[in-house]
Amino acid sequence: MADYWLEAVLPNGLRALLHPLPRTRTTTWGVFVNHGIRDEDPKTNGISHFLEHVVFNAQYRSQSDVAALVARGSAAEAFTTKEYTEYLLTTMPEDSLAALRGLGALVSSPDFDPEVVERERPLIKEELNRFRTSPAVLNELLENALFGDRSLGLFTLGTAANVDAFTAEQLERRHAQFYTPQRTTLVGEGPLEVEYTMDAVESVMGEWRRPPAWTPFPVFEDAPRVIGIPSPGPRVSVRLGFRGPGLTSPERPAFALVADALGLGIGSRLSVALRDQEALAYDIQASAVQYGPVGYLKISLTCDRAVAPRALARVLDVVGGCHAGLDPLELDRVRSLRTTALLRQTGDAQRMLAVIGKFAVNGLTFLVDAEVQSYGATTPPHTATVAQRYLTGDACAIVALGLSTEDLLTGL
Length: 412
Description:
Helix content is 45%, strand content 18%. The protein is an alpha+beta fold.
């Protein structure tokens, strides 16, 4: 059966995407607001995440429709990314309309009572404290090293000083500016009767009116950086990043396949070179990360401090070897791996809606069959072109926990 989505734009500018799946037993609704870290600057860094807490976490327990659904076992969640904020609710099909009403009310008309805001502030600060000691901090440090102290290079949770300073009035103004129908995509998946569901969407969301907001295109600093964080202990954790194409680039499929060839599982180039052949790394992986305007290749490495310079040099050598492109057999292998993973993912409504929403906020429609075809159309010369263009020394950023910046620069 062909994979298809039904798309409509309401008169107020809200975009709705429906994926009718008659045989599924649950319905999932996702609201994606085109507001994230890339819309912030150092003074407002963290406000998107704070706003998500106030819109969702602080209120869904008392908001009638959502509270009742959660009490009956529905799954509700929300999160903030560099590009968008997502609000998600999965219910039984008979509760689909209540879920739609509940999410619509939360997003379009939340409560900004100062008591609500103050209730969330310590929770966000605790989340920030936990983040600072988690492995995820290296991933965000890598993006900071790649993109600089603005836009995609800022931290999702912001800074403690900013979290302390945001006021209820500031959050309400931010909501009025960015939470508009024109910046919102509603995605529904499940056993949806199309005509009835679209009428319900227009009834619930059609009266939401707010003037559109314009924001400048994200700006990135010119030169990726090297960041070392000294720490005791025998092991070093490293992240390397190479700037690459974004979601909207036709080079995206080839870049993703090169990343998979480098570091997707056993048999990948980096795993063979640094684990099997030379025993330089405990763990090494590579993957492609894509945002709308830009992407990057991320390499994650854990090794002994004593061999870190050799390991990093070997990584750069293996990456440079991709300039010749992938041979047909290797290309077929990673194409099959990526296609299989993509097809398996289609059974996970929450993961799929996150992908759909990410594409939607960047003006794209994600179709599984189109993705599979894009990988099938990639040739060895395509992989050589993207590797030569993006996998270069001047496009590389490095972050290491366990080595100083001086150690990194000296070792390289």
